[in-house]
Each structure stands twice: as C-alpha cells, then as structure tokens.
C-alpha cells in the first residue's frame, strides 16, 4: 500500500519549490488565470518548456513562502511580489526574453461559451444572416428584440445586434440564444498583469516599447531638463550647450556694440560696417545660375540675334532699304 503525502508534506514541498524558483530566476510574470482549465494550463506549460516554469497555488501559501524566504536570504526585493498576489493568479518564472514569453503565453487562448451570470469581457454582437433555426425558435429573438424574418423556412437575422455589452452579466436568454447559434464569443487564457524583474515591478505594456519609443521618451526628458535648467539658471549637462551658445551671443553683442573686439567677432563687425560685402559675396552665386536661369537665357538671346545680323549683311541691304 502506497502512503499518500499529507497536506503538511505537500505544503513543505511547495514551499521548497517556490523558494528554489525564486533563487534560480530573477524574472517573473504575474498572470491572471481566470477561467483557465487544467488541459489549457498543461498546453501552456508545454509551450513554455525550456526556459520558463509556470507555478500555480493559493495566494496565502505563496505569500507565506515569499515572506519567509525573504527573511532567510535577506533579499527584501522579493517582498515586492506580495501586493501582486491578489485574485486568481499564477507565477511564470523565466530566463527568456520577457516580451517573447508574454507573446507565447497569449497564444494559448481557448474559446468559451457565454455562461449565465458570467461578466462579459468584450462586446458580443450577433451578425446578420441565416441562423439555420426553424420558425418555432423566433421567441428567443423576440425576447431580445432582434429583428428577424423567415426565409426559406428558417429564421434570418436582418441587422447586426449588440447582444451583450462589455462588463454586463450574461443573462439566461442571451446564453441560450448564443448556444443555439453555436457562437462561443469569449476566449480565455493566462493574462499577464505585472512583470517582476530583479526587484523592479512594472506594467506589461512596457514590454511593447520599441527602441524608437525609448529614444523618443529619453529625448523628451532631456528637453524638459534643459528647459527647467535654463529657466532657473542651474547648470546641467542637458542645458550646457544652450548656456554656452547664449553666453557666446551675449559676448558677441557686447563686442558689436562697443570698441572691444576679439578674432571671432572681427569678421562679424566687418560685415556690419560694410553691408555691400554681402552683395559682392552673392554676385558670383547669381552669375553661376542654373542653365535655365537669367544669365544663360541672355546668352542664348545674344546667340540668336547674331545670325540675324550676319544674314542682313549677306543680303547687301538694310532693313529699310
């Protein structure tokens, strides 16, 4: 006769397993497991096998193990997990890329019927078309105010109807109708709620950020720091380039307004004293216009006039002879 392990033995084994996982893995996905069946969970475990481990359990047991292990090891960062262990959740320990693991978990969703009393996670819309039901079933549609007509001996829905709104509870009539139509409107799977990474906790939405997003956010932050530094006249690395440029402008303004000068300001003063140098500098550029420009056009006009004069001389008489 094989002796079955007692509850105390199971708790001890679970505690040892959780503590070992906390030591071996620094990345954990906290996922909601509402309406996830055992077969579905096994498929998820099989899909993540290799660099990830899925651990389910009662929140009280998990919290107790995390708290005791934190005290034993002196690692207080484990305590950041405690507020996350609320509701029906599981832990996914992983050494892989967090985004890839999160996407892999999202693949294992299973369609589910609308059960009575269940809170709808999405809007449920019944599409128009032939239902395949005989006319005796029209009472379901009448109760739910769904416009129908009889077409070739079957009930046909005329227009799309929003049967259930997100957040509403599924009623008995809605559940019965969806069952008759063979519609399984909901899908369930593990949903990542939070991410634990070396003691830091953040939203899974962070995993969707690209390098361009991070660069953009960093640039925005640098701009804000520079603006604040300039406003309060407090030097920072972000504001230093602007401060140097502004200081140079101020020194240049003083040099232009006074007799004081320095090599970099002499050229500016020279141009301001003799504005004609701007026109001299621009003249070559104007002369080197594109082939379709005015100078080129003038040359072409001169070339066109020359043959006409030569032609008159060859004829031996002028225009008014």
Automatic annotation (TrEMBL):
<dbReference type="InterPro" id="IPR001790">
    <property type="entry name" value="Ribosomal_uL10"/>
</dbReference>
<dbReference type="GO" id="GO:0003735">
    <property type="term" value="F:structural constituent of ribosome"/>
</dbReference>
<keyword id="KW-0687">Ribonucleoprotein</keyword>
<comment type="similarity">
    <text>Belongs to the universal ribosomal protein uL10 family.</text>
</comment>
<dbReference type="GO" id="GO:0022625">
    <property type="term" value="C:cytosolic large ribosomal subunit"/>
</dbReference>
<feature type="region of interest" description="Disordered">
    <location>
        <begin position="288"/>
        <end position="321"/>
    </location>
</feature>
<protein>
    <recommendedName>
        <fullName>60S acidic ribosomal protein P0</fullName>
    </recommendedName>
</protein>
<feature type="compositionally biased region" description="Low complexity">
    <location>
        <begin position="288"/>
        <end position="297"/>
    </location>
</feature>
<dbReference type="InterPro" id="IPR043141">
    <property type="entry name" value="Ribosomal_uL10-like_sf"/>
</dbReference>
<comment type="function">
    <text>Ribosomal protein P0 is the functional equivalent of E.coli protein L10.</text>
</comment>
<dbReference type="Pfam" id="PF17777">
    <property type="entry name" value="RL10P_insert"/>
</dbReference>
<dbReference type="GO" id="GO:0070180">
    <property type="term" value="F:large ribosomal subunit rRNA binding"/>
</dbReference>
<keyword id="KW-0689">Ribosomal protein</keyword>
<comment type="subunit">
    <text>P0 forms a pentameric complex by interaction with dimers of P1 and P2.</text>
</comment>
<feature type="domain" description="Large ribosomal subunit protein uL10-like insertion">
    <location>
        <begin position="114"/>
        <end position="183"/>
    </location>
</feature>
<dbReference type="GO" id="GO:0000027">
    <property type="term" value="P:ribosomal large subunit assembly"/>
</dbReference>
<dbReference type="GO" id="GO:0002181">
    <property type="term" value="P:cytoplasmic translation"/>
</dbReference>
<dbReference type="InterPro" id="IPR043164">
    <property type="entry name" value="Ribosomal_uL10-like_insert_sf"/>
</dbReference>
<dbReference type="InterPro" id="IPR040637">
    <property type="entry name" value="Ribosomal_uL10-like_insert"/>
</dbReference>
<dbReference type="InterPro" id="IPR050323">
    <property type="entry name" value="Ribosomal_protein_uL10"/>
</dbReference>
<dbReference type="Pfam" id="PF00428">
    <property type="entry name" value="Ribosomal_60s"/>
</dbReference>
<dbReference type="Pfam" id="PF00466">
    <property type="entry name" value="Ribosomal_L10"/>
</dbReference>
<dbReference type="InterPro" id="IPR030670">
    <property type="entry name" value="uL10_eukaryotes"/>
</dbReference>
């Amino acid at each position: 006769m094989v002796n079955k392990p007692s509850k105390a033995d199971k708790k001890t084994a679970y505690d040892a397993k959780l503590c070992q996982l906390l030591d071996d893995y620094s990345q954990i996905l906290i996922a909601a497991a509402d309406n996830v069946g055992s077969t579905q969970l096994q498929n998820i475990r099989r899909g993540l096998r290799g660099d990830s481990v899925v651990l389910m359990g009662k929140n009280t047991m998990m919290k107790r193990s995390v708290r005791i292990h934190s005290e034993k090891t002196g690692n207080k960062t484990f305590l950041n997990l405690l507020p996350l262990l609320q509701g029906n959740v599981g832990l996914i320990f992983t050494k892989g890329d967090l985004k890839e693991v999160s996407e892999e978990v999202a693949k294992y969703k299973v369609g589910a019927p609308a059960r009575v009393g269940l809170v709808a996670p999405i809007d449920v819309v019944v599409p128009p078309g032939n239902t395949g039901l005989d006319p005796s079933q029209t009472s379901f549609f009448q109760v739910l105010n769904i416009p129908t007509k009889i077409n070739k001996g079957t009930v046909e829905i005329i227009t799309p109807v929003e049967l259930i709104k997100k957040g509403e509870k599924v009623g008995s009539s809605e559940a019965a109708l969806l069952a008759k139509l063979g519609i399984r409107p909901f899908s369930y799977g593990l949903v990542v709620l939070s991410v634990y990474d070396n003691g830091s906790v953040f939203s899974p939405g962070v995993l969707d950020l690209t390098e361009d997003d991070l660069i953009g956010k960093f640039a925005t932050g640098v701009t804000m720091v520079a603006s604040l530094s300039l406003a309060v006249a407090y030097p920072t690395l972000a504001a230093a380039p602007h401060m140097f440029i502004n200081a140079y402008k101020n020194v240049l303004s003083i040099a232009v307004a006074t007799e004081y000068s320095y090599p970099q300001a002499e050229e500016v003063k020279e141009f301001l004293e003799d504005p004609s140098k701007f026109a001299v500098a621009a003249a070559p550029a104007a002369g080197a216009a594109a082939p379709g420009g005015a100078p080129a056009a003038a040359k072409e006009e001169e070339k066109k006039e020359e043959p006409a004069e030569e032609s008159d001389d060859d004829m031996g008489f002028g225009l008014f002879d």
